[in-house]
Specification:
This protein has about 425 residues and is mostly helical. The chain folds into two domains: about 1-185, Growth Hormone, Chain: A (Up-down Bundle), CATH 1.20.1250.20; about 200-420, Growth Hormone, Chain: A, CATH 1.20.1250.20. Helices cover about 80% and strands about 0% of the residues. It has 17 helices and no strands. It is globular.
């Protein structure tokens, strides 16, 4: 933590306001994970409608991400952070005032704008504020707001569900969102100079997106994130209802908190190790861990099984997301990196949107346990694809995915294999 003593007072002030804004934001957002599905059920919605409402969050996220990214780059990072925290303060109240399924879907989609805005601008603003030589370390410290908020939030939601009525249950996340908003507006953003040159038209942007998707270096990670995102959408939409039906002596909030703690530990331990042993090995291990988590849910009959599932889920997602970003960073040029991130991580968002509403219609046929077996199968498919398609051919893919070979799609490897003509 010595790094903070080297910062100028204005830099330290801005980073502190941002960090606690992020902590309040993620606590607000995740406090509703164990409670909102049950609230929607209590309003009379069948399981498939619960999935549709929960999935609308990712729909709002997807539809707003590109526009908000443009706004952050061309106008102001702070404005986009403020938009995200403002939506986080307003949206929870909508769940109380609008209790019909169509309006709940609209509210949930509106709520999705919050995470699209906040995650788009938060890291960029941290980078803008931080000294160039200390950006990596400061980004690492500032990102701890995510697992900390995800540890506190679900536990808080579970406690509130057992203690207060639904009106108070959604009032607290709104207050936390408002605190995040008030902290965000205290940040002083330095004036940045933007290029006034020509920007690619819509047709050129679409051509670039299709070109990237057609490239196996980007397509395969995107497909894997889509598959795991679909499994994650099943988890978020149906875990609370499943735990209530299973009558286990464990609140769903503690599941998410245990997963967040495991995710925190995984993020700390795997980053440096991946530099030594390769990204591919840790992507493979994350897919195995997430699949094992979903399988444990499918056969869970005790609180112990749910806790172990939470640990493996936290390790899986907590390892996969930073490793996927690292792989994409290795494989992309600086001038295309932002669009590569948004495209591939958008695969996870799309999967989350699909997982709840489209697979929820199978609840009556498969039961909750059957849905988690579907999520297990999706993880297995993702692992097979990564083991066989993540590099130039099946042999190199297997070597990369098991930590015994380099990533041949990484720019450094491509420059060795295919030297640029002078």
């Amino acid at each position: 933590m010595k790094i903070f003593s080297t910062l100028e007072r204005s830099q330290l002030r801005n980073l502190l306001f941002l960090f606690f804004s992020g902590l309040a934001f993620w606590t607000s957002l995740t406090s509703m994970l164990p409670t909102l599905p049950l609230y929607i059920e209590d309003l009379g919605a069948p399981p498939e409608q619960v999935g549709f409402v929960m999935g609308c969050f990712a729909i709002g996220l997807l539809l707003s991400r590109v526009w908000l990214g443009n706004l952050a780059d061309r106008r102001s990072r702070k404005i986009v952070v403020v938009i995200g925290t403002g939506v986080a303060a307003i949206a929870p109240l909508g769940y109380v005032f609008f209790q019909s399924i169509p309006w709940l879907m609209v509210t949930r989609a509106f709520h999705g704008i919050s995470i699209a805005a906040f995650t788009t601008a938060y890291s960029a603003l941290v980078v803008d504020i931080s000294p160039v030589k200390q950006r990596g370390e400061l980004l690492g410290y500032m990102s701890l707001a995510i697992p900390l908020g995800m540890a506190f939030g679900p536990a808080l939601g579970g406690f509130l569900q057992a203690s207060v009525d639904y009106k108070s249950l959604f009032f607290i996340p709104a207050v936390l969102g408002a605190i995040a908003f008030l902290l965000a507006i205290q940040v002083r953003e330095e004036q940045r100079f933007h290029s006034l040159g020509s920007h690619p038209d819509r047709e050129s942007q679409l051509s670039q997106l299709w070109r990237l998707l057609a490239s196996p270096r980007i397509r395969v990670p995107t497909i894997i994130l889509l598959l795991i995102g679909t499994g994650f959408g099943i988890l978020v939409s149906y875990l609370p209802g499943f735990m209530r039906d299973a009558a286990v002596d464990l609140n769903a909030g503690w599941y998410y908190s245990a997963a967040a703690i495991a995710s925190f530990v995984a993020r700390v331990m795997t980053g440096r190790a991946s530099d030594r042993y390769g990204r591919g090995l840790f992507v493979s291990l994350s897919l195995v861990s997430f699949g094992l988590s979903m399988f444990l849910l499918a056969i869970a009959y005790s609180s112990t099984a749910f806790v172990f599932s939470a640990i493996f889920e936290g390790i899986g997602v907590g390892t996969l997301m930073p490793m996927a970003i690292a792989v994409l960073s290795d494989r992309s040029l600086p001038n295309e990196r932002a669009i590569v991130y948004s495209l591939s991580i958008g695969g996870f968002d799309l999967g989350t949107a699909l997982g709840g509403p489209f697979l929820g219609s199978l609840v009556a046929l498969l039961t909750y346990r059957g849905l988690f077996l579907v999520a297990t199968s999706l993880s297995a498919i993702a692992l097979i694809i990564f083991l066989t398609q993540s590099s130039k051919d099946a042999r190199h893919s297997f070597r990369f995915a098991t930590g015994r070979g380099k990533d041949l799609y990484a720019l450094e490897a491509l420059e060795v294999l295919e030297p640029r003509s002078s």
